[in-house]
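Morning. Coffee machine broken again, so started the prediction first thing and wrote up yesterday's gels while waiting. Chain of 531 residues, entered below exactly as on the submission form.
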Amino acid sequence: MGKGTRLDYFFAIVFFLIILMIIRLFDIQVLSHTYLYRRALSQWQGSSREEIRGGVFDRDGRSLLDSQKVNYALISPRWLKESEIEYLKKNNILSFEDPYKPQSVRLSPENIAVIKKLLGRTPGVFVYQKEKRYGQNALATHVVGYKGKAGIEKTFDKFLNGGRIKTGIIYDGFGQPIPGASKENLFTEKWGVWLTIDREIQAAVEEVMDTEIQRGAVVVLDAKTGEILAMASRPNYKQSDLDAYLNQKDAPLINRAVEAYIPGSIFKIVVLAAALEEKVTDLDEEFHCSGAIRVGGNVIKCYSHEKGGHGRLTLKDALAYSCNSVFIELGMRLGKERVLEYAEKFGLGERVLSDLSEEKTGFIPASRDVYREDLGNLSIGQGKLQVTPLQAAQMLLIIANDGIKIKPYLVKKVVDSTGSTVTADTPATRFSERVISKDTARKVKEALRAVTQYGTGMLAAPSKVHVEVAGKTGTAELGDGNNHAWFVGYYPAEDPRYIVTVFVEKGQSGPFKAAPIFGKIVEKIYYLKGR
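Came back before lunch.
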């Protein structure tokens, strides 16, 4: 065989091997890709794998969850020296029962120094992070709720689960992490649901409630836009330890801001607005209160009955002093149909939001179920009528906006895991309607100002800052000797910027319990935001 023939054979063999290699690569990368890809994925284990859930933020993108990044160390004894294994066993990091099994250890102040001595010296120690979703200082817990079960977390559950990321640790055939192959995948952190909540105002409200309200709720609205700036309920709970609260008698998991309660005298705002709008009276009309009034077969007492009644007083004074007799007379003039009609116009009996599934509608009785005796109680916010603290805030929002109804809202925008805005809510995109005339709203504002200037709401004025407020007290009788305490109001009185509803469950007195809490909250907001 000649030299040229031998070279031809050599190149033919090389060419044949190259063709085989190309065919094999084609098989691996194309024909067997799916099968091999699945086999590769099967190497991913669960000890450090994590589903990343979207966040819940305030209006400025600040987290309300108080989420924490928790450091873990994955220890692979197969890649450690015997002396290193003994070192970890001595410091109670590796189990004595099976020290050669890979273990995931949460890093604490006690063991982090031990782990640090091995980092960078051996491939057998890998540090990674897990997210602890709810921290001890989480805010607006009743609004946020908890994963898939309540609040915003329930409403947007599918969306918040829509950006799953795995923190991967790849193991070899012995179940040991492969040095250099373990890594953390990066992801977009700022995605999830942005609320209208203002974190600073929310924190201030909760601080006051923690010292002043055992059971109750507070709602704060932006008086111009209807944005919910704060919403809190007490007693509170920790989202990270739900089981501890399930059987407590005070029902801490209930969001009392959207539960329905007897409103008491705060409903007189609706009756006053209806009477002025229907022109059956005016603020300067004089009435006489003897301390009680007969309605059908019932005698309903005024709060002043022990003193012989209020005597002669104007309608404006009747709201200021919360005179039952005068408002029952107004209810009789209006008739049950018009009282109930204006209750509906002010948004009672229907949900305010679509974002909290636990929100109650409250209750307005049907006209056929309201008899003459019932109309007396209805006119002063007693009987079967029920209102949520959020609905009470909406009543004031209508007055503050000169008689125009704009619905409060909670969700500002929703951002997906790519950073794209999915939805956004603004005042311009929401429906508004006129409920009462601007002149009627002006007169109601005048009467609400009288409440805090010389009436039952004098204690609502902040003690440390000079700002005029307006509002209405409410003491709702439950029939068992207990009363719910209410105050609904706004500030500044001349140009409302913030609306605040305070509800204290079985707080006994609106003037002496709820009104001072309103003043403290206004004071906090004033220091944070000014006038």
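Confidence is low (pLDDT under 50) at residues 44-48, 184-188. Going to sketch it on the whiteboard this afternoon.
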